[in-house]
Amino acid sequence: MTVHRAPSTPTQTISTAVAAQAVTKTFGGSDDATRVTALDNVTVAFRPGEFTAIMGPSGSGKSTLMHCLAGLDTVDSGRVAIGSTIITGMSDRDLTLLRRRRIGFIFQSFNLVPTLNARDNMLLPLDLAGTSADDDLFAHIIDTLGLADRLAHTPHELSGGQQQRVAIARALLTRPAVIFADEPTGALDSTTGTEVLELLSRSAREMGQTIIMVTHDPHAASYADRVVVLKDGAIVDQLQNPTAQTVLSALAGLGA
């Protein structure tokens, strides 16, 4: 397998939706024996309208990279940008406002408000931003995700898969420039999972949204335009127009 190390020079251009430049992130103590390097001088850029899957063995740094790109975690060195906005060093308040306006999240933990029904959970980010939902988009999303008969249900009345679908709808309804997805189909059956992946792919292709998805599933990654492969906190491979088989082959030599 050909190894492509991340370049050491900045790659951000005017057409870059998200970029990390020479980002390093460590956890643990101050000495080498206890310090863990989660990201090691990572430079990577994501174009508008691109659907990218981030993959790698357990502990490779893929979730840490996503958290740093989204401003959910700080970096030790280097910088991260959302479009032309450098988010490294931004205050918590400014980061919150930026995420509310420009970023959507789909996480395994759902993060639904237990006292709100499914509809209100979906609309919560729009309510916080003082805007209203696009009725046509709302109808399309709930139809695609099979949620039309679950809108009045609270999270405890929904299955895990249904809760995940509500979380996905919530992320898509704000039409964010960037969607970060952490194993978005992990709690779904294969049919619904495929529908979600197709919806994410269309969101990138038709709405120009940038999708950055962490996954361990080669089938899910095959819906992406590109796969970025990490090992030991560094980018070691990138695949364009991946298939499940090419992803499996790329991971085979990494112990994934």
Secondary structure elements and pairings:
Layout: E1 18-28, E2 35-46, E3 51-55, H1 62-69, E4 77-82, E5 85-86, H2 92-102, E6 103-106, H3 118-129, H4 135-144, H5 160-173, E7 178-182, H6 190-207, E8 210-214, H7 218-221, E9 226-231, E10 234-240, H8 244-252
Parallel strand pairs: 3-8, 3-9, 6-7, 7-8
Antiparallel strand pairs: 1-2, 1-4, 4-5, 9-10
Helix pairs in contact: 3-5, 4-5
Please give a handful of descriptors for the protein shown.
256 residues, Rossmann fold, six-stranded mixed sheet, MacB-like_ATP-bd, disordered N terminus, ATP-binding
Q: How would you describe the overall organization of this protein?
A:
This protein has helices spanning 62-69, 92-102, 118-129, 135-144, 160-173, 190-207, 218-221, 244-252, and strands spanning 18-28, 35-46, 51-55, 77-82, 85-86, 103-106, 178-182, 210-214, 226-231, 234-240. The radius of gyration is 18 Å and the shape is globular. It has a single domain (18-252), classed as 3-Layer(aba) Sandwich (Rossmann fold). It is α/β, with parallel strands linked by helices. The longest helix is centred in the C-terminal third of the chain and has 18 residues, at 190-207. Helices cover 34% and strands 25% of the residues. It has a 6-stranded mixed β-sheet, sandwiched between helices. A 4-stranded antiparallel β-sheet has the order 2-1-4-5. The two termini are 14 Å apart. Helix 4 (135-144) runs antiparallel to helix 5.
